[in-house]
Design goal:
Helix content is about 40%, strand content about 25%. It has ten helices and 13 strands. Bound molecules: zinc ion (ZN).
């Protein structure tokens, strides 16, 4: 039996999985990302994680054909080069070198949005689809675009930065330094910002009660709960979020004509509260019914990345 290793590197956690040659998961584990985040510590943690998964599952590393690695940031996958990963404070890190030299196994590095999209395409909500957009609404807004079954890479392999499309002039400042990016309008922090703004008109909001009067303590989960209780501030915050999400999605639909948009990340836990409204607004804004595309939440949750990374290794070997 041959095997594939998938690693999904995040700013907080590193997730790992081993799949066998029929793409059945053998084992999965995770470890915290070292706090100093320097490449040497991070790759030594990844090596530990892979070795401990192999030992526990009695997988011989000699039978592993490839390692797929997802990293949040701008990645030149042709050279396994992490050009920029803001969460990790990395620039120009040769991700392949560390693992390939240690294990002597080929490594394939991709942006984390792309491996999430591959995961959902092969194992989750996008099964059977060849044209997929994945949007991860969390701390930031990650994206992966699959066209005709292949990851859209672009001329210099840094395509699919949907989070930095500008959808609002003079909008909120984004982590990239610009204003009004899709990310600054539709991240978890943005949803909470809208709720805080709406509380000004609704000082009796349940959100304040849930957060013990501290606006800074409001979470997405509280907004979800207050929405279910018909709380006006929560309802309006979700409405604002859904409207902006629909603007970004319509732009992407007009460009890429996907058959499905998969929403993942922390904000996706609000599910139909957001998607119901966003879907309605998208349908009302499309140019022609032929552009119809399903908008759903991901099925794999936090496993989409590692599963996609295993698939990435298999598709390259
Ligand atoms: Zn931006």
């Amino acid at each position: 039996m041959k095997y594939y290793v998938g690693i999904d590197l995040g700013g907080t956690n590193i997730k790992g999985m081993i799949m066998n040659e029929t793409l059945q998961p053998v084992i999965s584990k995770s470890a915290p990302t070292p706090q100093n985040k320097n490449p040497e510590s991070v790759f030594s943690e990844i090596i530990n994680l892979i070795e401990s998964m192999a030992a526990e599952s009695k997988t011989n590393m000699g039978d592993v054909l490839g390692i797929g690695l997802g990293v949040p940031g701008l990645i030149d996958s042709r050279m396994n080069l992490v050009l920029n990963a803001a969460n990790l404070f990395w620039t120009d890190v040769d991700a392949g070198k560390w693992l390939e030299e240690y294990f002597n196994i080929p490594v394939y590095t991709e942006n984390d949005g792309n491996i999430n999209a591959l995961g959902e395409m092969h194992f989750g909500a996008g099964r059977g689809c060849g044209n997929i957009l994945l949007l991860t609404l969390g701390t930031g807004l990650g994206s992966g675009i699959i066209i005709d079954g292949n990851i859209l890479h672009g001329a210099s392999h840094v395509a699919a930065e949907a989070g930095h499309m500008i959808i609002e002039t003079n909008g909120e400042k984004c982590s990239c330094g610009k204003r009004g990016c899709f990310e600054s309008c539709c991240s978890a922090a943005a949803l909470i910002r809208y709720a805080r703004e709406r509380i000004k008109d609704h000082p009796d909001s349940l959100l304040l009660a849930y957060a013990s009067g501290n606006q800074d303590a409001i979470t997405g989960e509280m907004i979800s709960k207050a929405w279910d209780e018909e709380d006006a501030a929560a309802k309006q915050a979700v409405e604002i979020f859904a409207k902006k999400l629909s603007i970004g999605m319509v732009n992407l639909i007009n460009l890429f004509n996907p058959e499905i948009i998969i929403i993942s990340g922390g904000v996706s836990q609000l599910g139909e509260r957001i998607l119901g409204r966003a879907r309605e607004q998208v349908e009302n804004t499309l140019m022609h019914p032929i552009q119809h595309c399903r908008i759903v939440t991901g099925e794999l949750g936090i496993d989409a990345g590692v599963m996609g990374a295993c698939y990435l290794a298999r598709s390259n070997t």
